[in-house]
Amino acid sequence: MFEISVEQTFAAGHALRNYKGKCENVHGHNYRVRVTIEGEQLDAAGLLVDFVDVKRLMGGAIEYLDHRFINDLEPFDKINPSAENIAKYFYDRLHAGLKNELPVRISEIRVWETDTSSAVYRP
Fold first, then answer.
1. What is d(CA 53, CA 58) in angstroms, rounded to the nearest whole number?
2. Most exposed residue of 45, 55, 102, 105, measured as fewest CB within 10 angstroms of its CB?
3. Domain CATH code at residue 93
C-alpha cells in the first residue's frame, strides 16, 4: 500500500451554533488541512497521485473558505462549521476531484484549528 499526504493552510472565521462557551462567539483560526491518499498501484511515472493535482484540488476547496466567515457559506449556513464538519467538507470536495485517478482513496482528512487541536474524517 502506498500513501501520500499534502498539507495546506487557510485563515477563516466562524461561530459554533448550539455551543455553550466562548466558541459560540465569532472568532477565527489559522487552519491547517492534511489530506492523506492511499492506493496499491502507481502510475507509469511511479506516482500514486501527483502532488500538484492534490494541491490544486485542495486549493479550490481552500479558496472558497479562505478569509471568509464560514457560517455564511454553503454547507455551513446549515451545518455547524466545526472542525469535524470542515474535514468532511474537504473530503467531499477532494473525493469528487479524484474520481478519474487510478484506484486511490482518501484515507484521512485532518483539520487543525490550533497547533494542538485537530479533528479527523475517515470515510
1. 9
2. 45
3. 3.30.479.10
Q: Are 48 and 2 in contact (CB under 8 A)?
A: yes
By three-state DSSP, how is residue 46 classified? Answer: coil
pLDDT in tens, the chain (123 residues): 999 999 999 999 999 999 999 999 999 999 999 999 999 999 999 999 999 999 999 999 999 999 999 999 999 999 999 999 999 999 999 998 887 666 899 999 999 999 999 999 999
How many domains are contained in the chain?
1
Does some domain include residue 19?
no
* Sequence-separated (6 or more) residues with CB below 8 Å from residue 22: none
Residue 39 counted as domain residue: yes
